[in-house]
């Protein structure tokens, strides 16, 4: 029918404007490397990538021992956890956590309210500590603080909030030491808990990778509500670093790559809409194209256009389709994963979310293709970013004649989107291998470092412990 042809035509155009051929991805990776170099050269050298030195000098070795806590403020969900580290055995003997949603009004309220909520949650969690664990902390309880927003660190346990992302906007907390704000709130809670490490969630993930995996973990990357990556850089490559070089000769750099903005990124009308409606228009373009907070919204905008211009869901557009944030990324990944011949899952999601009672198989196929185009684009762009990092640290390239001992680089991954969106993840893994090429001198593996940010923060509190 005519309507269907119109929909196919729109879909075809959309697919073209979202395309990520390999050659383009190589250029995107080169652009990223260019910005990385600019950001390392001088403070503010890149207006996209902050390339923040993290002051993390001791990545966990496996010998850490004792009871440590962590607070993980990442986005939608907030976690507190405790881990008992076994020492020489290099093992986590026990771990417990509690997850709470941050009430929406606290995400855009005052620093005091937000940190009192966080401190109160940690304090209540400490109160549930088993008697048998009390032997295992040093003089006082220590906690790591995984904080997944841009921070200019001033030491391993202090740092200034630069700005908020992912829907948070706590204006009066900006420009102040985030650890002091939490430490003060902990004081008000009446509990003695010391924050020993301020850890970006990507750095926590990297630390967890170092603790857990045999091969060398060089990169930590999160794709959840938002996205970011950190990596181990040669300290002398960080030209803007003015303090004495760390003994290890290495420095973990928090890239804040969500704000990467190559003009080569295949942006569409839907990306423009999402950007315009966000709390930070013009910022975080890379994040807005690949992460969970936005993927569902992008799909929704495309469906709106298909409904308006090709009557995809009947003569009138379902009213709810115009409502923001009605289509979550989990719903998109569910539809994308639908392998039934009649796309029952797609039908069910459309019915449950938008009240669309009847759809034809052809219509459902179009919805499925939209999910696929955007999942593919996101996964492939994320892979290009990681490839750029590997290129920067010299872990790509062609093997010399006859060389057989290909060294393996591990990329520790975390985040709900990477963990749960199987098709996205498959695109990402496949594309990374494609970019490396078959004759590469290095192998690379993406490994899920589950709850990387939280456990990593506890591990880094241990490796930077002040009391034990
Ligand atoms: P955060 O990034 O807030 O620290 P997570 O790493 O747990 O938290 O990521 C949560 C995000 O992951 C959600 O906002 C959502 O976008 C995405 N997500 C969660 N479950 C799924 C799923 N099943 N499929 C796709 N995306 C998911
Ligand atoms: Mg997180």
CATH level-3 fold name of the largest domain: Hexokinase, domain 1
The top level CATH class name of the largest domain: Alpha Beta
* Count of discrete domains: 2
Gap between N and C termini: 73 Å
Work out the helicity level. Answer: 40-55%
Average pLDDT, rounded to a whole number, is 94
Beta strands, count: 13
Structural class: alpha/beta
Domain Hexokinase C-terminal: 219-462
Enzyme class: transferase
Family: Belongs to the hexokinase family.
Pfam families: Hexokinase_1, Hexokinase_2
Give an overview in words:
With 468 residues, this protein is an alpha/beta fold. The chain folds into 2 domains: 1-53 and 213-450, Hexokinase, domain 1 (3-Layer(aba) Sandwich), CATH 3.40.367.20; 55-199, 2-Layer Sandwich (Nucleotidyltransferase, domain 5), CATH 3.30.420.40. Helix content is 42%, strand content 19%. The protein has 15 helices and 13 strands. It has helices at 2-17, 22-41, 104-107, 111-126, 178-189, 201-212, 269-277, 285-290, 292-310, 329-336, 344-354, 361-392, 416-420, 422-436, 452-463, and strands spanning 52-53, 65-73, 77-86, 92-101, 141-147, 151-155, 158-161, 193-199, 216-223, 227-234, 250-254, 407-414, 442-448. Strands 1-11-10-9-12-13 form a 6-stranded mixed β-sheet, sandwiched between helices. A 5-stranded mixed β-sheet has the order 4-3-2-5-8. A two-stranded antiparallel ribbon has the order 6-7. α10 (329-336) crosses α12. The radius of gyration is 23 Å and the shape is globular. The mean pLDDT is 94. Adenosine-5'-diphosphate is lined by residues 74-77, 148, 224-225, 292-293, 329-330, 333, 415-417, 420-421. Adenosine-5'-diphosphate binds at residues 74-77, 148, 224-225, 292-293, 329-330, 333, 415-417, 420-421.
């Amino acid at each position: 029918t005519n309507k269907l042809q119109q929909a196919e035509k729109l879909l075809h155009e959309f697919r073209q404007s979202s395309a990520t051929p390999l050659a383009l991805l190589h250029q995107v990776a080169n652009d990223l490397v260019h910005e990385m170099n600019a950001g390392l050269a001088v403070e503010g050298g890149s207006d996209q990538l902050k390339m923040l030195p993290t002051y993390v000098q001791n990545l966990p070795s496996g010998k850490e021992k004792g009871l440590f806590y962590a607070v993980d403020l990442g986005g939608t969900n907030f976690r507190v956890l405790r881990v008992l580290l076994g020492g020489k055995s290099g093992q986590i003997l026990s771990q417990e956590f509690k997850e709470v949603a941050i009430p929406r009004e606290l995400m855009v309220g005052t620093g005091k309210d937000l940190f009192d909520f966080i401190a109160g949650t940690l304090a209540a969690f400490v109160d549930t500590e088993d008697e048998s664990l009390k032997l295992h902390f040093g003089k006082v309880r220590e906690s790591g603080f995984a904080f997944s927003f841009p921070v200019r660190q001033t030491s391993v346990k202090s740092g200034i909030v630069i700005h908020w992302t992912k829907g948070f906007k706590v204006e009066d907390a900006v420009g102040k030491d985030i650890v002091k704000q939490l430490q003060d709130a902990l004081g008000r809670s009446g509990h003695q808990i010391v924050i020993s490490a301020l850890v970006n969630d990507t750095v926590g993930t990297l630390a967890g990778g170092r603790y857990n995996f045999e091969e060398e973990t060089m990169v930590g990357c999160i794709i959840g509500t938002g996205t970011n990556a950190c990596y181990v850089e040669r300290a002398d490559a960080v030209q803007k670093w003015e303090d004495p070089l760390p003994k290890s000769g290495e420095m973990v750099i928090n890239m804040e790559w969500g704000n990467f903005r190559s003009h080569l990124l295949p942006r569409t009308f839907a990306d423009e809409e999402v950007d315009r409606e966000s709390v930070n228009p013009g910022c975080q373009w890379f994040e807005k194209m690949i992460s969970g907070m936005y993927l569902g919204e992008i799909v929704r905008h495309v469906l709106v256009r298909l409904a308006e211009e090709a009557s995809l869901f009947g003569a009138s557009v379902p009213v709810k389709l115009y409502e923001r944030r009605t289509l979550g990324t989990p719903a998109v990944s569910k539809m994308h994963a639908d392998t039934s011949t009649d796309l029952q899952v797609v039908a069910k999601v459309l019915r449950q979310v938008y009240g669309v009672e009847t759809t034809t198989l052809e219509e459902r196929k179009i919805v499925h293709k939209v999910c696929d185009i955007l999942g593919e684009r996101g996964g492939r762009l994320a892979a290009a970013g990681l490839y750029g990092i590997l290129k920067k640290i010299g872990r790509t390239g062609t093997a010399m004649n006859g060389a057989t001992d290909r060294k393996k680089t591990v990329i520790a991954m975390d985040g709900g989107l990477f963990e749960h969106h199987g098709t996205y993840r498959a695109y990402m893994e496949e594309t990374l291998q494609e970019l490396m090429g078959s004759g590469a001198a290095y192998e690379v593996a993406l490994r899920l470092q589950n709850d990387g940010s939280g456990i990593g923060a506890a591990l880094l509190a241990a490796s930077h412990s002040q009391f034990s």
